[in-house]
């Protein structure tokens, strides 16, 4: 398309979106603002900037160049924050290694990403010892440690430098050049249910736009601004996982006080919340459960705490409990592939007058799409379904901050981006107010007459019948409908022989009509079985049951 | 610089920053939200989107193609909002014509921008009649009117279509394609003190980033979020001027209720504030003065009104008066060349506990730079001055949303961007808290020993002496200091002969030491004169006085 672009006489106006530019404003408006590691180390943004320069100079001295990959294994620390900036600002790629992976997975990801340098916390030296001989590309190791004694032991590799010594000997005056905003800045690996971890990756431009988009939504979409420069930020999802949801970048851009807690220990988290005045965090439900369940949490005043819950569905009971403690708890939705934030569950003024129970329903929804996020619910032909809070389909998305694909995995990348949208493999609906509700993973839905039908919803409905002990709903091939839902039902012993499959089907059909379930749910068939197959960890093994449902009747 | 860019197997992930994408979120989260014109016409975002499609189809039917320029002459209206989106979304350039210009200037800007199409409100037909014969490129005219009768009169040009009829006959299903985000989206003209108006221009990418940056700052920088989706927006700086500071784009992106007032009449503005519940606006001090001074304003509850003041310095007295009415009044800083917003005067929680007088000082400062805004105060060698609230220099800036230059004016463009930063020609300082204070225009400062010295500050100091009737401070060439300030002083008749130049200089020097003025101010020389030269509008004619100060003594 022809466009009327005026040729400027100078290219001085060009302004690539680079991570280094997130540091511009805080150094003017908050140079004295604090960053603390566990409350025992503390410095200001001016010092942060100097240490970022020193780290870059130090790494350059070790031979790190633009285009290389620098991997980090650490808990959440000020050091990690420094790496978040210094490594991409040099033009290198930051690989955030998932330290919860087993050693073989860690080895795989370091080799697959072709990491050149590894910064490793002394706590992980045993892991490193078990894989060091098989690292194919890492040649340089830098040791991170909270504790000099721990770092003085025998090393499984030749350590090129200790982190603090490296910084102390290097100049703060590293010149961070401008370069292409599409340069890769970070990479990390995500696990599926099968196979090796898959690498996703983000550019400078994407991380900057994600920071702006989140800040715009947190200020602009909720009735009250939810994130402002007087907030105190502490991550509670790890920095190795989707850059702690990008919030270290956002917090820095806004000049917030930042608190890094190291490894997530409930007593330490409780202490930091109290002593440092934490007001803004994000975590998965499990971590919040751990924190609120800790004895120290009982005396904490949590009424200034704003907390994004993500990673898995938030139980409404948790939202109610949090509400009673005064916490402003709300859901965020996204995944590793999406940088991650796509939606946030913002409330309106009137919503905030609702009871805890009523608010919980809204707070547990997945939320409203951020600006620029093109979030759709589509059927199998990529057609939009109605925004009526009932019609469901796959969540597909475009936004300026999605991974381009999986690292060195062209087939999976093409699948991920089929039809020009990133496929989340999540099933959900959107209501008239724009709230996304994610209901299922795609593997848990059955495509009946071309429409997604939730097996989990059907299971919920059938499980409510007093005769039912356990139920698994699977899809079975059907000439007319493509697939039909089949409920494999284990009856309570005392009900065996007293209820017909037909009667249970009718019970379900009536409940389906009254529920938000797909109308095709009524095509449900019921089969009473003698056993259900489960996996080694006790989950329903639907794959095997679907393969031969008849066998379960014997 | 080599960068490790992974080649994706698909380019589906590419997401150019285009104006059309600002519409994505509101259509999901606020499809029923209202947009009203003067309270007498009202529709929702779904209808806005349909009308944008119709306008694009209608314009395409008139021959408008990507790359062409569509000029608009209208007061602030829903039609203008539709043009803000439809024209750039087609790949065409929207020229917002300053209807306050005189007809010759309007003619100049339409010819200079090579406008192809003109959408003109029937109110401006007399202007059009006076220039129609000399329009060099405009071939197609579309008539806008609030009033069918007014539009039925004799036309000075052949009208291709009436706006509402055009929309009514066109399809809402215009397919807005993706294209290069650097495509030019808008252009408009700004006046200097001399010469013809100069054209500035902005790309899709720049307008989208400006919207995100403003939203991030309005939510994230103030103690409380200052702009959220339950706000009701009404512009009070015109849409023809820097796109009403970009707020129609921002308000749309966030899904706000929007109120367009037409021409700014204080009674209409007061009525709309009350009837439509306006909570967010922006204006120059003069307009606020007009509104607050109107009889209808006395009964208005303005305690929910947030108002950005810009365009010229906000008097502290105005901030105090606004505070007493409960208005959250704060300064924004920028100019036509900067899209415009660079800084906003956000307060902290503790600041908001201060007295009205103390807050006024902060609210009247020019504010804190937005995220990504690289705002510097530099001396003549482009070296940063200290952020101590005293050292002053020129404000220079980089950000992702600055004009690339002046349209078809290579020399002025190069001057604007000298040294890789956009030169604002404003003089100011930054304090330790990051607040910018703009003190002078560059033509009002004197460069002494390489340091900017404010002539206005020196004039204020000297004017405090009881003997002084009028004073003008100009710079005179000096071998050692480059320039030295020279005070041309007209004494009150009764003091003539009773005060020496030397005594007044010493009085000034002492006051300079105690003030925030440059230390080089003490190099001030004093010359008693018999007259001061003024321009035709009564301003000091410093240019002529500087040329021959000696002549003023005779």
UniProtKB/TrEMBL annotation, chains A, B:
GO terms for biological process: fatty acid metabolic process. Residues 458-539 form the AMP-binding enzyme C-terminal domain. Residues 36-407 form the AMP-dependent synthetase/ligase domain. Coiled coil: none annotated. InterPro entries: AMP-bd_C (IPR025110), AMP-bd_C_sf (IPR045851), AMP-dep_synth/lig_dom (IPR000873), ANL_N_sf (IPR042099). Pfam families: AMP-binding, AMP-binding_C. Its EC number is 6.2.1.-. One of its GO terms (molecular function) is ligase activity. Keywords: Fatty acid metabolism, Ligase, Lipid metabolism. It comes from the Bacteria. PANTHER family: ACYL-ACTIVATING ENZYME, BUTANOATE--COA LIGASE AAE1-RELATED. Belongs to the ATP-dependent AMP-binding enzyme family. This is Fatty-acyl-CoA synthase. It comes from Rhodocyclus tenuis (Rhodospirillum tenue).
């Amino acid at each position: 398309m022809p466009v009327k672009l005026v040729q400027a006489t100078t290219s001085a106006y060009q302004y690539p979106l680079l991570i280094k530019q997130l540091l511009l404003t805080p150094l003017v408006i908050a140079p004295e603002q604090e960053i603390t590691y566990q409350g025992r180390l503390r410095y200001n943004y001016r010092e942060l900037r100097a240490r970022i320069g020193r780290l870059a100079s130090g790494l350059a001295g070790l031979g790190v160049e633009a285009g290389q990959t620098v991997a980090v294994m650490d808990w959440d620390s000020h050091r990690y924050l420094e790496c978040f900036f210094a490594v991409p600002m040099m033009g290198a790629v930051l690989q955030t290694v998932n330290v919860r992976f087993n050693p073989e997975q860690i080895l795989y990801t370091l080799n697959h990403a072709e990491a050149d340098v590894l910064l490793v916390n002394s706590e992980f030296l045993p892991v490193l010892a078990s894989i060091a001989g098989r690292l194919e590309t890492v040649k340089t190791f830098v040791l991170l440690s909270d504790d000099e004694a721990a770092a003085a032991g025998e090393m499984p590799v030749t350590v090129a430098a200790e982190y603090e010594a490296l910084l102390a000997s290097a100049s703060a005056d590293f010149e961070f050049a401008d370069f292409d905003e599409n340069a890769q800045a970070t990479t990390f690996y995500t696990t599926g249910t099968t196979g090796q971890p898959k690498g996703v990756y983000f550019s400078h431009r994407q991380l900057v736009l994600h920071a702006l988009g989140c800040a715009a939504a947190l200020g602009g979409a909720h009735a009250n601004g939810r994130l402002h420069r007087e907030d105190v930020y502490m991550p509670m999802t790890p920095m190795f996982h989707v850059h702690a949801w990008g919030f270290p970048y956002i917090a820095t851009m806004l000049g917030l006080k930042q608190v890094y807690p190291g490894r997530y220990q409930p007593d330490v988290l409780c202490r930091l919340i109290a002593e440092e005045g934490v007001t803004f965090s994000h975590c998965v439900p499990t971590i919040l459960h751990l924190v609120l369940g800790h004895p120290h949490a009982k005396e904490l005043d949590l009424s200034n705490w704003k907390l994004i819950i993500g990673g898995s569905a938030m139980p409404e009971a948790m939202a109610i409990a949090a509400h009673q403690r005064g916490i402003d708890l709300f859901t965020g939705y996204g995944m590793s592939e999406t940088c991650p934030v796509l939606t946030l569950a913002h409330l309106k003024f009137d919503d905030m007058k609702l009871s805890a129970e009523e608010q919980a329903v809204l707070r547990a929804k997945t939320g409203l799409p951020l600006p620029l996020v093109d979030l759709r619910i589509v059927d199998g032909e990529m057609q939009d379904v109605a925004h009526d809070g009932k019609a469901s389909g796959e969540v597909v998305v475009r936004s300026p901050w999605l991974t381009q694909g999986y690292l060195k995995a062209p087939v999976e990348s093409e699948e991920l981006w089929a039809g020009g949208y990133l496929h989340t493999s999540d099933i959900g609906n959107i209501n008239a107010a724009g709230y996304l509700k994610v209901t299922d993973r795609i593997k848990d839905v059955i495509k009946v007459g071309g429409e997604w039908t939730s097996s989990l919803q059907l299971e919920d409905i059938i499980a409510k019948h007093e005769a039912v002990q356990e139920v698994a709903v699977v899809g079975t091939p059907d000439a007319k409908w493509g697939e039909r839902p089949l409920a494999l039902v284990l009856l309570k012993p005392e009900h065996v022989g007293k209820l017909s499959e037909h009667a249970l089907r009718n019970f379900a059909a009536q409940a389906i009509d009254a529920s938000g379930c797909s109308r095709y749910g009524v095509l449900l068939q019921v089969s009473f079985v003698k056993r259900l197959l489960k996996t080694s960890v006790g989950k329903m093994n639907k794959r095997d049951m679907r393969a031969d449902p008849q066998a379960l009747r014997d």
